[in-house]
Design a protein that fits this description.
By secondary structure, the chain is α+β, with helices and mostly antiparallel strands. It is about 65% helix and about 10% strand.
Length: about 425
């Protein structure tokens, strides 16, 4: 029994993964779809009740549909603990408003041509909105519940329904839509695999020369000081050696440390690129007890700061909390946020970065704030979308548009959320909220 629970949890996660990932890509349309649903439900009650009267209409069922979508207009203002339920709420609302409602109304109206057309439009909208697994599941479940509701609420037996030709057309549309969406899903997965393979190849090709550069710099570090000293002694003794200006000599004294620092920085960027490119890696990690203070300490120790960068990054306070997650992934989330913050500061030529750990009975939070240039308001709603990038993109990994999407995926796998608040020209603040462990 103990082994069955993790297996069932893993199975449910894998089954829901395409659906939850699909919600991420339609969030920009969520508000627009909610407005359409809120307006269309009562509007078409008036149309079918008075303009083109039908056999059956129900204002109550339509008002339920409207009420389901009203909260979605304000989803960005939901409390953090509630936002994690938004995908499930979205799919429940679609289940009611598309397959259930239109199938039920089709049956109650005895297969009227108007409702045949309306139900087929509902199927078409489902194909546009849902991945292939969710499409099949919603169609079967929603239609089944509609048949059950019709049987329980109607005096007319289901056998009297004569428009089964609709079912043949609807099944064909769902099958064709599922095949089309399955191909789209496979193409997306193959694109991500190709990106990961390319990233791995680039990483291998870059790591080898970087290792040679660091090894060469370490070897020179043993001999360069002696060579500089010998050159200075030769000059003082009047030997015929080429003169080197004092500024160049001073530069030579620090060049090896700079080479080593740049090589370590490049290796860190390669690590970030590889971890961020593993799109499904967050969901596959085994969650373990971690402490946030330890994650922050490791990130600040391992991040390849330059001297100027290290001087503007601060950890405020000594708070700490425990969470279930992965220290490796959490450290890379911090890497991405720190790199973004330093980029904002470099662009604005001002500011500093503060990292705070806050605890409360409702939720534990990690806050990363910079007082650099901020994020333009037109870009702010899209920064967590995978592959979203532009000439002024605030995502951090070589302009690929995957760093902040990676952060969002990791936080979702931990059962938490990540939000961003920014005022252009003033500040940017990321708030990571974790459930109580």
């Amino acid at each position: 029994m103990t082994a069955l629970i993790p297996f069932l949890k893993h199975l449910i996660t894998r089954l829901l993964e395409p659906a939850l990932r699909n919600v991420v890509y339609i969030q920009r349309r969520l508000t627009a779809f909610a407005i359409i649903a809120i307006v269309a439900f009562p509007l078409y009650w008036y149309v079918w009740a008075f303009v083109f009267p039908q056999r059956y209409e129900s204002l109550g069922l339509r008002l339920i549909g409207t009420a389901l979508f009203v909260p979605m207009l304000f989803s960005r203002h939901w409390p953090n603990w509630l936002k994690s339920w938004l995908p499930y709420y979205w799919y429940f609302s679609l289940l009611y408003s598309l397959p259930f409602f239109f199938t039920y109304m089709l049956l109650k109206n005895q297969g009227a041509d108007v409702w045949i057309g309306s139900a087929l439009v509902a199927v078409f909208v489902m194909i546009l909105l849902l991945d292939w697994v969710t499409l099949i599941g919603q169609f079967v479940l929603g239609s089944g519940l509609a048949v059950l509701a019709f049987t329980l609420t109607s005096d007319v037996p289901l056998a009297a329904f004569e428009r089964w030709d609709y079912l043949a057309i609807a099944l064909f549309a769902v099958a064709a839509g599922a095949v089309s969406n399955y191909d789209s899903e496979r193409i997306r997965i193959e694109q991500e695999r190709a990106m990961l393979a390319t990233a791995g190849s680039i990483a291998h090709e870059l790591r080898t020369p970087l290792l040679s550069i660091r090894a060469g710099a370490a070897g020179l570090a043993h001999y360069l000081p002696a060579l500089i000293e010998a050159h200075e002694m030769a000059q003082r003794s009047g030997l015929p050696v080429s003169p080197i200006r004092a500024t160049h000599v001073d530069s030579l004294r620090g060049v090896l440390s700079r080479i080593d620092s740049e090589a370590r920085h490049s290796n860190a960027i390669i690590d970030m690129l590889l971890v961020n490119a593993r799109v499904t890696g967050a969901a596959e990690q085994t969650l373990q007890p971690c402490t946030m203070a330890a994650c922050v300490d490791v990130a600040l120790q391992r991040y390849p700061f330059s001297e100027e960068e290290r001087a503007v990054v601060f950890r405020e306070g000594e708070g700490d909390f425990s969470f279930r997650g992965s220290e490796l992934l959490m450290v890379h989330v911090l890497f991405n946020l720190i790199k973004n913050a330093l980029r904002h500061i470099a662009r604005a030529s001002k500011g500093e970065v503060s990292i705070r750990i806050l605890t409360s009975p409702a939720a534990n939070r990690l806050m990363v704030r910079d007082t650099g240039g901020g994020i333009p308001p037109e870009m702010l709603p899209h920064i967590f979308q995978r592959f979203y990038t532009s000439a002024d993109s605030n995502d951090s990994v070589l302009g690929a548009g995957i760093g902040l999407a990676f952060c969002r995926d990791v936080m979702t796998s931990f059962g938490g959320t990540i939000e961003c608040t920014s005022v252009s020209g003033d500040f940017t603040e990321f708030v990571l909220s974790f459930p109580q462990s």
